[in-house]
Design brief:
By secondary structure, the chain is α+β, with helices and mostly antiparallel strands. Helix 5 crosses helix 15 and helix 13 packs across helix 15. The relative contact order is 0.18. The structure holds zinc ion (ZN). The site of zinc ion (ZN) has 5 residues, from loops.
């Protein structure tokens, strides 16, 4: 008779053998798609001239203000004049649509009206550079050094916008005629939630009854070192984004003079609540988006990692544990909460009568808002602290991967970045794309550029830059996407 440990060991061994057989079977049934043959695209624009155009565009300080009325329109109007002069074919051969505010929207008519149009997006506005004096080069000036264009917005997202203009101008100069109609939209206020930009543009399309085969906005990049164990760069294409909500937590107590305190103060009670929120972790789960990402990576990963990723039925707890140890990966499998703003009294010797803090919440798709709000309340576990939802999350849909749309974008990625593995991905941050989800079942978020974490950290931070090589890659990607699509349909 077998002893209990022997039974357990043989059961474990059987499970591992099943996992091994599955891994081999899945990998041999899914031969990774090879690099597509290079599309015969017209000659790429001159990289150095394109870099100068990007540097010129960066020099317009198109900073948006949360109160739209306070936004200075002049830099935007200057940028528009510059773009009109620099890209004459785009501005004479494409139709420009008036969607209000400071948006730039174009239509390039295709030859086949039976095809649904596609929409390319980027945004004109940038975040401020409050620490300008500490930048290597002034953030709003024409700076090209050591193979990079430096300045605020060079990466987010004027690099993408200029790459699209360059690609269009080159295709028009070569006499390219697309089969599908392409729309191109550059919103004016993505950095402050897009209510004047993307919202108005999407409303325009909605009222004219236009639906898109796919929408492509900024988003994931071609990332090196994205996942330990996979050497090849991974092109992460966002197919959904996490919900973004803000909850104010408040504690009200007697104030008074700090020389005769009656502790705990409102601030002290609130601080303890904050600590309890931040020291907890919500339940980790693998959503449909992350499941398809892990499956894709499992097809390309070296064997030990593939063994884990392709057998989540057995290794899910281990994968979740590994993800939990890294903040970037953790955000893919959990709804998260963090405190971003706090206020007590206005003087050092005054005890706050009221203390308040803002909890920024990022919600997984397919997970209810109430679940996270309930979790926060349970972590606070103090009736003296109240909660108020000041900005509820708009929930993102999960884009579909069937049909040709995702395949077409992936093919253009494989052609432009032959080493990269394209994979669906969950965006942890938000973009304009959210506004367009009603107009297409295929809304993708991808920035065609090679980035490592060091480069990404400069975004919204000091010494933002975009390499001329990346500008070239981005131009090639858009030209490939448009010409491949015209050949295929
Ligand atoms: Zn952006």
């Amino acid at each position: 008779m077998l002893t209990v440990p022997l039974v357990v060991i043989s059961l474990l061994l059987s499970l591992l053998v099943i996992a091994l057989v599955r891994t081999i079977a899945i990998r041999s049934a899914n031969t990774p798609v090879g690099t597509s043959p290079k599309a015969p695209i017209p000659g790429l624009p001159d990289f150095d001239l394109a870099a100068k155009h990007l540097a010129d565009a960066v020099a317009f300080p198109t900073i948006t203000h949360r109160e739209w009325k306070k936004t200075d329109r002049e830099p935007f109007l200057g940028l528009h004049r510059y773009l009109t002069e620099t890209y004459p074919l785009v501005h004479t051969k494409l139709e420009q649509l008036d969607t209000g505010a400071l948006n730039l929207v174009y239509r390039w008519n295709g030859s086949d009206n039976s095809l649904e149009p596609a929409l390319l997006l980027a945004h004109q506005d940038v975040v401020p550079a409050s620490d300008a004096a500490q930048w290597l080069y002034p953030p709003f000036s024409h700076q090209v050094h050591d193979g990079y264009v430096f300045g605020r917005g060079s990466f987010d997202a004027k690099g993408q916008m200029i790459a699209i203009y360059e690609a269009l101008e080159a295709l028009l100069a070569a006499g390219h005629m697309p089969r599908r109609t392409w729309y191109i939209a550059f919103g004016c206020d993505e950095e402050v939630r897009g209510t004047e930009g993307a919202a108005k543009i999407a409303r325009y399309f909605g009222t004219t009854g236009i639906r898109f085969a796919f929408v492509l906005d900024e988003g994931g990049v071609v990332a090196s070192g994205f996942m330990p164990g996979i050497d090849r760069p991974i092109a992460v294409v966002g197919i959904a984004e996490k919900g973004d909500a803000n909850i104010k937590i408040t504690c009200t107590r007697d104030g008074g003079h700090s020389s005769t305190p009656d502790n705990p103060t409102a601030l002290g009670i609130l601080g303890a609540a904050i600590w309890r929120i931040e020291s907890g972790k919500q339940t980790a789960r693998i959503t449909s988006v992350v499941r398809v990402m892990l499956h894709t990576l499992g097809l390309h990963a070296p064997f030990p990692l593939a063994f884990l990723l392709l057998n989540l039925w057995l290794f899910k707890p281990l994968v979740l544990l590994l993800f939990g140890a890294n903040p970037t990966m953790n955000a893919l499998v959990r709804s998260t909460c963090t405190v971003t703003m706090a206020h007590g009294s206005d003087a050092p010797n005054v005890v706050a009568k009221q203390a308040e803090a803002m909890v920024n919440v990022r919600l997984l798709p397919e997970e209810s808002t109430d679940r996270t709000y309930g979790w926060i309340a349970r972590r606070i576990r103090d009736k003296r602290v109240t909660m108020e939802v000041v900005a509820d999350a708009v929930r993102s849909k999960v884009s579909r991967l069937d049909g040709n749309s995702f395949a077409n974008v992936s093919e253009a990625i494989r052609t432009t970045f032959p080493q990269a593995i394209p994979t669906p991905y969950l965006m942890t941050g938000g973009t304009d794309a959210l506004w367009y989800e009603q107009l297409s079942d295929h809304v993708f978020r991808f920035t065609p550029a090679n980035m490592d974490t060091g480069e990404l950290k400069r975004m919204h931070s000091r010494d933002e830059r975009f390499s001329i090589g990346n500008l070239g890659k981005a131009m090639e990607f858009y030209m490939t996407l448009i010409t491949q699509d015209s050949r295929k349909v």
